[in-house]
Amino acid sequence: MTATETPVNNGVNVEALLGAREAVTATPDAAKFEWRATCEWQSGTHSNSTVEGFFGLGDEQTHRTRYSFDVDHPEVFASEDNGATPVEYVLVGLASCLTAGVAAVAQNREIQLRSVSATIEGAMDIRGILGADTDVRNGFSGIKVTYKIDADATPAEIKALVAQSQKRSAVYDIVTNPTDVRVEVS
Amino acid sequence: MTATETPVNNGVNVEALLGAREAVTATPDAAKFEWRATCEWQSGTHSNSTVEGFFGLGDEQTHRTRYSFDVDHPEVFASEDNGATPVEYVLVGLASCLTAGVAAVAQNREIQLRSVSATIEGAMDIRGILGADTDVRNGFSGIKVTYKIDADATPAEIKALVAQSQKRSAVYDIVTNPTDVRVEVS
Fold first, then answer.
1. Number of helices (H) and strands (E), helices first, in chain A?
2. Between chains, do A140 and B174 touch, taking CB under 8 Å as contact?
3. Which residues 163-182 on chain A approach chain B with CB closer than 8 angstroms?
4. How far is CA A178 from CA A52, A165, B146, in A?
C-alpha cells in the first residue's frame, strides 16, 4: 500500500480472526462450540424459536440480545403464514454464511467491497414431504446461489473470493454433506 | 370418537393436506416448488436477508408479508452481533420443521397436543471454519434435539409421533443427507 491509498475496510477484523486461529491451534479445547435454539410449538405448524446462549472459548456465552423467530407454513399449505418456512430459514442461513465469508476473505486479500448481494433458490418436489411418492426426497433437489458483487477487483478475483468462502463456510458444509442428528423425547 | 368426546384440534388442517397429497399425485407438476431468499451484505459479517415470494402449484406465490432477517457473528468472533449466526438459523429451521411435523402427525393420529417444546444443540469445532486444522469439518460434528411433549397419548405413541415427523421432515433430510449447491457470480 502506498501512502496515498486508503486502507481496505470491509468491517471485518481480520487480525482478531488470525489471532483466534493461532489461539485455537495452541488450545484446541477453546474451539469446541455448542450452538443452541429452543423451539416452542404455538398451534398448527406455527412455532416460535429463540436463540440466546451458546458455549465456546471454554465458557458459556450469550448474544447481545435474545433473538426470536416465528416459523410457519404458508396459506397454500392450509396454514396461517405466521413466519417464513423452515426451509427458507435454511436458505437464509446458507446465503448469509457465504456472504460473511466473502467479506472476511475480501478483507484478508485487501479487496475493497462496495456491494454484495445474493439470490438463493431451493428447488423442492413436495410429493416427498406429503408422502405422495416415497422415491422423492423431502428436502431440496438442488440449491442455486447467484452473487452480484461490486468490488475493487477483477472478475477472476471476485470468483476466487466466492470459491474460498465456500471452502470455509459452516452452512455450505452442513447442506452439502451429511450430519448426524439425534432426536430424543425426554 | 363417542358423542361426549371433544374432537382433537392441534390447529392443523389434515383434510387439506390429504387433499393436497391426492392433487399432487394426480398432477405432479403442481408439486414443483422453489423457495427463495435474497441476501444483502451490510458490513463485516452482518447481512440482511428477505423472504417473500416462492413458486408452487404451477404459479408464483407470496407470503402474507415480507420477512426480514439480520444475520451476524457474535462479539467473541470480533463481530457486532447484529443477529443470530447462520448456523443458528439452520438449528431454528430444523427444530421448527420437526415441530410442525409433530403437530401434523398428531392431528392425523387424533392425538391432542397440549404443549411441545424442543431444545436443539449443534456441536462445532471452530478450527474448521478458522482454517486451523483442515481435518476438522466446517459444519456441525453432530446435532441433538430433545423434545418435551405433553399430549393425550402414551410415551410410546409420543415417541412414534416424533419418529414419523423425522421421516417427513424437509430440513431433517437437508441436514442428514447431501444436497447439491451451485454457487455462481453473475
1. 4, 6
2. yes
3. 163, 166, 168-182
4. 26, 20, 20
CA distance B16 to A138: 19
How far is it, in rounded angstroms, from Cα B20 to Cα B16? 6
- Among A158, A176, A184, beta carbon nearest to B178: A176
DSSP string, A65-87: EEEEEEE---GGGTS---SB-HH
Using the Cα atoms of residue B147, residue A39, residue B101 and residue A134 in order, give the sign of their dihedral: negative
What are residue A66's phi and psi, to 5 degrees? -85, 130
| Residue spans of beta strands (DSSP E) within B32-112 | 32-43, 46-56, 59-71
What is the spatial distance between Cα B40 and Cα B76, in angstroms, rounded to a whole number? 23
Backbone phi and psi for residue A84, each to the nearest 5 degrees, phi listed first: -65, 160
DSSP at B84: B
- Report pLDDT digits (tens) over A73-96: 999 999 999 999 999 999 999 999
- Judged by a CB distance cut-off of 8 A, whether residue B96 touches chain A is yes
> Structure pTM?
0.97
Pairing of strands A142-151, B181-185: parallel
- pLDDT (tens place) for every residue of chain B, 186 residues total: 455 667 999 999 989 999 999 999 999 999 999 999 999 999 999 999 999 999 999 999 999 999 999 999 999 999 999 999 999 999 999 999 999 999 999 999 999 999 999 999 999 999 999 999 999 999 999 999 999 999 999 999 999 999 999 999 999 999 999 999 999 999
In the DSSP assignment, the letter for residue A29 is G
Q: What angle do CA A127, B174, B169 make, to 5 degrees?
A: 50
Q: Collapsing DSSP states into helix, strand and coil, what is residue B119?
A: strand
CA B124 to chain centre: 19
